[in-house]
Amino acid sequence: xxxxxxxxxxxxxxxxxGASQPPPYQKDRKPEDRxxxxxxxxxxxxxxxxxxxxxxxxxxxxxxxxxxxxxAETDSNTSEINKQKTLIASTCV
Length: 93
Prior knowledge:
This protein is mostly helical.
């Protein structure tokens, strides 16, 4: 009888472990708002989110530099034009 209880208890135990696993990441949130990752799939998504956020930050800096360049050109501000052109060269891909 003891030999029959071991497989049954192992099956129950393993099925209970699988039921308590959290989702790999918060699929319903934007990458900016995600803060919980678990397992291999979660780590893969974490890397994707980090890459996305870095690219978004560069894109935002590029856009801001282009706007500031247009303003500097309107004002004929040579030093600001040079500064913004340097920023554009380093952030715009």
